[in-house]
Specification:
The chain has about 325 residues and is of the alpha+beta class. The chain has 3 domains: about 1-65 and about 265-335, conserved putative lor/sdh protein from methanococcus maripaludis s2 fold (Beta Barrel); about 95-170; about 185-265, Elongation Factor Tu (Ef-tu), domain 3. It is built from 6 helices and 15 strands. Strands 4-6-9-8-7-10 form a 6-stranded antiparallel beta barrel. The longest helix has about 40 residues, at about 95-135.
Length: about 325
């Protein structure tokens, strides 16, 4: 009686699927499946009673899907109206704009100190040394010349040290300072965050598709420029920079977008997402081993790609995995 109550919910499905078979005496045959091996094996009384369940034959194949990430236009590049040597970078983030401006100023200072000030002080020092040898300069003059050179060298070291802070903040924001300095007018930079576990599938230089909230009926093509050098400790995400053509000026800093990256998993076994059941952090599928029997198998899974889940271990090509009636098999196997 206890066993019948346990399987009463599945009996109704099985009886409907097979029409309630009767023997010659008119009595309904027992349709209760037999569960053995601690729930690993489920045997049905006949082939008719198993028709409710559907399976697929699995094999190794290549899977392709899109990684879709929210994004924003982080910066645009325009030509300076005043004819400056550096193009204008319009950042969405004011802090990054400040860092870039200060970085450029420090570079200008370094160039001035290194190529003008220090060269001049070295020339002055050599001149004072020559004058001293001929009795036309004192030891005090020599000391002052040496001190002036040392001060300029200290200024150069300070300027170089100051650059590090601004470079670091730009890199955290997804930008390489050297790329910004050489950026061509009519370029837009998109920054998006991708999960750490997807980084191995992203290749620099690969194409991607971008859709903007402002232009819902258009798709733009971009190129993956760079992946940031650090992972966010709390979200486990990395920043990815994408560049695209913006010669027409349609894209503005701060616009929202989504970026799609096509990724491929080559020659791997996968199952339909509904085939998988998870119990106490372990993953299982049900394999049809003959006309009346299913066996529960534990599997080691990978990423989900569209409606398929990659299987690393636990299955082999040619096996028939349940895709319909999986919850009923789960209930029988685990006694739910």
């Amino acid at each position: 009686m206890k066993l019948l109550l346990k399987y009463s919910w599945i009996l109704s499905i099985l009886l409907l699927s097979c029409g309630g078979e009767k023997n010659n005496s008119g009595k309904i045959e027992n349709q209760t499946p037999v569960v053995s091996n601690n729930g690993e094996t489920i045997t049905f009384p006949n082939e008719e009673s198993i028709k409710f369940f559907e399976t697929e034959t699995i094999s190794s194949s290549s899977l392709t899907s899109d990684i879709i990430a929210p994004a924003k236009v982080a910066a645009t590049v325009i030509r300076s109206a005043e004819g400056a040597n550096q193009n204008l970078i319009l950042f969405e983030n004011p802090e990054l704009a400040g860092n870039y401006t200060q970085l450029i100023q420090h570079l200008i200072n370094i160039n001035q100190i290194q190529n003008n000030n220090i060269k001049q002080k070295k020339t002055d020092l050599e001149r004072i040394k020559d004058l001293q040898q001929h009795g036309a300069a004192t030891g005090k003059d020599l000391l002052e010349a040496q001190t002036a050179l040392a001060m300029e060298e200290t200024n150069l070291a300070n300027e170089r040290a100051a650059i590090i802070e601004h470079e670091t903040k730009l890199k955290i924001g997804g930008f390489q300072p050297e790329v910004l300095r050489n950026a061509q007018p009519g370029t837009a930079y998109i920054i998006c965050d991708i999960p750490e576990n997807q980084i191995g599938k992203i290749k620099e230089g690969s194409a991607c598709t971008i859709e903007f909230t402002s232009f819902p009926n258009e798709k733009f093509q971009g190129k993956i420029d760079d992946v940031a050098d650090m992972v966010d400790e709390s979200t486990r995400m990395l920043k990815l920079r994408v560049s695209l053509n913006n010669n027409n000026g349609k894209l503005k800093a701060g616009m929202f977008a989504t970026v799609s990256f096509g990724v491929t998993e080559g020659n791997t076994i996968s199952v339909f997402k509904n085939s998988l059941v998870t119990i106490q952090a372990k993953n299982y599928v049900f394999v049809k081993t003959n006309n009346t029997t299913f066996e529960r198998k534990e599997v080691n899974v990978g990423n989900q790609m569209n409606d398929r889940i990659i299987i690393y271990t636990g299955l082999k090509g040619g096996e028939n995995v349940a895709v319909k009636g999986v919850m009923q098999l789960k209930g029988l196997s685990f006694g739910y």
